[in-house]
Structure to design on (186 residues):
């Protein structure tokens, strides 16, 4: 199983050659990042604390699933103004919503040998169904690396809805990128 929280996010499955395997994430080599625009300039950031549970079998996608939880207070961009704003009530509202999550309801084969995890992303207590396309490296050579990306409309989750409802300062689209390195536990 894979569990992430954040918003955003996120997210990945890893495959085992025979049966659905549980994968252990190497958090030191894995990242959940995000980017957007502020005042016309691109910014990037990442979540410093998140957890994922991954169960994946390419031959039995019905038995495969992902679950991710993100510590919203761990979102950081390296810019004092943005980092001071993100935890506030109009953005992640860390006090009332200390975590965000993604839980897959279905994983299917995608284009070009990839996969698509469809599930529920919950940020600030607001849930939306999202599809997360991802690719994987060779299962026979662990650890396996999964890469995924997702475009989110921040206003769909109420982020910045009071201070910037017309996206005059912060763009509506937030891009989430995930790179997870994991190995089967059995």
């Amino acid at each position: 199983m894979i569990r992430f929280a954040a918003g955003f996010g996120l997210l990945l499955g890893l495959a085992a050659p025979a049966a659905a395997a549980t994968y252990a994430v190497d958090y030191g080599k894995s990242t959940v990042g995000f980017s957007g625009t502020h005042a016309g300039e691109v910014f990037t950031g990442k979540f410093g604390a998140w957890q994922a549970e991954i169960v994946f079998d390419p031959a039995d996608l019905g038995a495969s699933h992902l679950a991710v939880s993100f510590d919203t207070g761990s979102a950081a961009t390296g810019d004092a103004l943005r980092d001071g704003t993100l935890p506030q009530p109009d953005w992640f509202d860390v006090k009332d919503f200390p975590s965000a999550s993604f839980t897959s309801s279905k994983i299917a084969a995608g284009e070009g040998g990839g996969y698509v995890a469809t599930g529920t992303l919950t940020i600030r207590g607001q849930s939306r169904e999202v599809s997360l396309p991802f690719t994987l490296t060779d299962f026979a050579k662990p650890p396996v690396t999964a890469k995924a990306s997702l475009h989110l409309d921040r206003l769909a989750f109420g982020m910045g809805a009071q201070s910037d409802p017309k996206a005059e300062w912060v763009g509506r689209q937030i891009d989430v990128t995930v790179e997870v390195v994991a190995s089967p536990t059995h």
Summary: The helical segments are 80-85. Residues 80-85 form the longest helix (6 residues). Residues 169 and 184 are 43 Å apart (CA to CA).
